[in-house]
Write a structure and sequence with these properties.
four-stranded antiparallel sheet, about 200 residues, 12 strands, eight-stranded antiparallel sheet, alpha+beta, globular
């Protein structure tokens, strides 16, 4: 009787549309021995899509270009066809040292198959630090345009690494990481001279 009840409970749980945990390691733009394990939740068919999920899909529809909508910003984090990972950041605090909630969405071709547990990041920086870090990102963007960017992100000040994605035209998307491989910021940098588009 107990076994039958357990089987029925499990069947009901499976049919109720809950998310299942998938333990997957995803390789970032770092050395092979440095990978980050991400806990993925499977996306069930028939569940409604939120604004963050729709914005993540919009990134793929627009060829991987970063998208913004209200307090959400989305960008292509990695692509290994047919799989893509899009990060969506949500500003949950509007103070200068605000908190950002980041959720990753994993797509197979154009279909969402999984999403991550959200992570919360706090920004603590001075104006001078921010300007320095933006300058590092600009330097890496120009290297990407010229084709001289290193295959592994270089460390700046022993704290920051920058990974570029160049669209081949005038924009370079730069992802900034700390030494723990956590994403700190993303930049979309125009690398064309003024007046040229």
């Amino acid at each position: 009787m107990l076994a039958r009840f357990s089987f029925l409970s499990l069947t009901l749980l499976l049919l109720s549309g809950c998310a299942f945990e998938i333990d997957t390691a995803m390789d970032m733009d770092f050395a092979p021995e440095e990978s980050t394990a991400i806990k993925w939740l499977e996306k069930n068919a028939g569940t409604t899509s939120g604004d963050a999920e729709l914005l993540a899909a919009q990134v793929l529809k627009n060829g991987g270009k970063p998208q913004k909508s209200g307090n959400l910003s989305a960008w292509l984090m990695s692509e290994d066809l047919p799989f893509s990972v899009v990060a969506v950041d949500e500003q949950v605090s509007t103070a200068d040292n605000g908190t950002t909630k980041r959720t990753l969405y994993r797509f197979q071709e154009d279909a969402l198959i999984a999403y991550s547990y959200p992570e919360y990041h706090e920004r603590v920086e001075t104006g001078e630090d921010k300007n320095k870090r933006e300058q590092y990102a600009r330097e890496v963007a120009m290297q990407a345009k010229m084709g001289t960017a290193p295959s592994r992100p270089a460390m700046y000040e022993g704290k920051y690494a920058y990974s570029p994605k160049y669209d081949g035209f005038c924009r370079v998307a730069i992802t900034e990481y700390n030494t723990k491989r956590q994403v700190l910021a993303t930049y979309s940098i125009d690398v064309c001279p003024k007046g040229e588009q």
